[in-house]
Write a structure and sequence with these properties.
The protein has one domain: Rossmann fold (3-Layer(aba) Sandwich). The protein has 134 residues and is an alpha/beta fold. Strands 2-1-3-4-5-6 form a six-stranded parallel beta sheet, sandwiched between helices. Strand 1, helix 1 and strand 2 form a beta-alpha-beta unit. The longest helix has 13 residues. The C terminus is likely disordered.
Protein backbone atom coordinates (compact mmCIF):
# COMPACT_ATOMS: atom_id res chain seq x y z
CA UNK A 1 0.00 0.00 0.00
CA UNK A 2 1.29 3.46 -0.91
CA UNK A 3 2.18 5.91 1.82
CA UNK A 4 -0.25 8.80 2.19
CA UNK A 5 0.32 12.51 1.75
CA UNK A 6 -2.26 15.12 2.69
CA UNK A 7 -1.80 18.22 0.51
CA UNK A 8 -3.64 21.41 1.45
CA UNK A 9 -3.68 24.29 -1.03
CA UNK A 10 -6.46 26.52 -2.33
CA UNK A 11 -4.97 26.52 -5.85
CA UNK A 12 -6.52 23.88 -8.08
CA UNK A 13 -3.40 23.98 -10.29
CA UNK A 14 -1.09 23.26 -7.34
CA UNK A 15 -3.32 20.39 -6.16
CA UNK A 16 -3.24 18.94 -9.69
CA UNK A 17 0.55 19.30 -9.70
CA UNK A 18 0.76 17.37 -6.40
CA UNK A 19 -1.34 14.57 -7.88
CA UNK A 20 0.76 14.52 -11.04
CA UNK A 21 4.27 14.57 -9.58
CA UNK A 22 3.64 12.68 -6.32
CA UNK A 23 0.75 10.40 -7.28
CA UNK A 24 2.97 7.81 -8.96
CA UNK A 25 4.73 6.94 -5.71
CA UNK A 26 2.27 8.04 -3.03
CA UNK A 27 -1.44 8.16 -2.32
CA UNK A 28 -2.06 11.92 -2.46
CA UNK A 29 -5.16 13.33 -0.82
CA UNK A 30 -5.70 16.95 -1.82
CA UNK A 31 -8.02 19.43 -0.13
CA UNK A 32 -8.61 23.15 -0.83
CA UNK A 33 -8.84 24.52 2.71
CA UNK A 34 -8.06 24.04 6.39
CA UNK A 35 -11.53 22.83 7.39
CA UNK A 36 -11.42 20.07 4.79
CA UNK A 37 -7.96 19.07 6.01
CA UNK A 38 -9.05 18.92 9.66
CA UNK A 39 -12.20 17.00 8.71
CA UNK A 40 -10.14 14.41 6.82
CA UNK A 41 -7.69 14.11 9.71
CA UNK A 42 -10.52 13.82 12.26
CA UNK A 43 -11.71 10.67 10.51
CA UNK A 44 -8.67 8.84 11.99
CA UNK A 45 -6.49 9.37 8.96
CA UNK A 46 -2.78 9.65 9.69
CA UNK A 47 -0.75 10.60 6.61
CA UNK A 48 2.98 10.10 6.43
CA UNK A 49 3.39 13.76 5.42
CA UNK A 50 1.31 16.94 5.28
CA UNK A 51 2.06 19.56 2.65
CA UNK A 52 0.29 22.82 3.47
CA UNK A 53 0.04 26.39 2.26
CA UNK A 54 0.04 28.68 5.32
CA UNK A 55 -2.44 31.01 3.56
CA UNK A 56 -5.80 29.28 3.33
CA UNK A 57 -9.10 30.98 2.50
CA UNK A 58 -10.99 29.75 5.57
CA UNK A 59 -8.31 30.33 8.24
CA UNK A 60 -5.93 33.02 9.40
CA UNK A 61 -2.40 32.79 8.01
CA UNK A 62 -0.48 29.93 9.67
CA UNK A 63 -3.54 28.78 11.66
CA UNK A 64 -3.56 25.24 10.22
CA UNK A 65 0.20 24.89 10.77
CA UNK A 66 -0.22 26.13 14.35
CA UNK A 67 -3.07 23.66 15.01
CA UNK A 68 -1.01 20.75 13.70
CA UNK A 69 2.07 21.78 15.70
CA UNK A 70 0.14 22.10 18.96
CA UNK A 71 -1.90 18.92 18.53
CA UNK A 72 -0.95 15.95 20.67
CA UNK A 73 -2.24 13.70 17.89
CA UNK A 74 -0.75 15.30 14.76
CA UNK A 75 2.39 17.10 15.93
CA UNK A 76 4.68 14.19 14.99
CA UNK A 77 3.54 14.07 11.38
CA UNK A 78 6.14 15.86 9.23
CA UNK A 79 4.87 19.08 7.65
CA UNK A 80 6.20 20.65 4.48
CA UNK A 81 5.13 24.28 3.98
CA UNK A 82 4.54 25.61 0.48
CA UNK A 83 4.45 29.38 0.98
CA UNK A 84 3.69 32.40 -1.14
CA UNK A 85 4.73 34.66 1.74
CA UNK A 86 8.11 36.33 2.20
CA UNK A 87 11.16 34.23 3.02
CA UNK A 88 11.59 36.04 6.34
CA UNK A 89 8.01 35.45 7.49
CA UNK A 90 8.10 31.85 6.29
CA UNK A 91 11.37 31.07 8.08
CA UNK A 92 10.22 32.71 11.30
CA UNK A 93 6.92 30.82 11.40
CA UNK A 94 8.43 27.52 10.30
CA UNK A 95 10.92 27.76 13.17
CA UNK A 96 8.13 28.69 15.61
CA UNK A 97 6.00 25.70 14.58
CA UNK A 98 8.85 23.18 14.18
CA UNK A 99 8.27 22.75 10.44
CA UNK A 100 10.94 20.55 8.88
CA UNK A 101 11.16 22.05 5.39
CA UNK A 102 9.55 24.72 3.28
CA UNK A 103 9.35 25.84 -0.31
CA UNK A 104 8.64 29.34 -1.52
CA UNK A 105 6.33 29.68 -4.53
CA UNK A 106 7.22 29.33 -7.33
CA UNK A 107 9.11 26.09 -6.71
CA UNK A 108 10.81 23.33 -8.67
CA UNK A 109 8.63 20.17 -8.72
CA UNK A 110 11.72 17.93 -8.94
CA UNK A 111 13.06 19.45 -5.71
CA UNK A 112 9.63 18.93 -4.13
CA UNK A 113 9.61 15.23 -5.06
CA UNK A 114 13.12 14.74 -3.67
CA UNK A 115 12.30 16.49 -0.39
CA UNK A 116 9.04 14.57 0.01
CA UNK A 117 10.88 11.30 -0.53
CA UNK A 118 13.49 12.22 2.09
CA UNK A 119 10.84 13.19 4.66
CA UNK A 120 8.70 10.10 4.12
CA UNK A 121 11.57 7.64 4.04
CA UNK A 122 12.76 8.88 7.44
CA UNK A 123 10.82 6.44 9.63
CA UNK A 124 11.05 8.34 12.91
CA UNK A 125 8.35 11.01 13.17
CA UNK A 126 9.53 11.85 16.70
CA UNK A 127 12.93 13.09 15.55
CA UNK A 128 13.38 16.80 15.06
CA UNK A 129 14.41 17.61 11.51
CA UNK A 130 16.38 20.85 11.25
CA UNK A 131 14.44 23.33 9.16
CA UNK A 132 15.91 24.10 5.77
CA UNK A 133 14.81 26.12 2.79
CA UNK A 134 14.57 24.21 -0.45
Amino acid sequence: MKKQILAVDDSKAIRFLFQTVLGKSYQVITVPDGCSAMHWLSRRNFPHLIIADPQLPDLENWELIQQLASSGIYKNIPVLVLSGLSKEETEMNCAAYNVQNYFLKPFNPVDLVNTVQQLIENKSFDTYYPMKAV
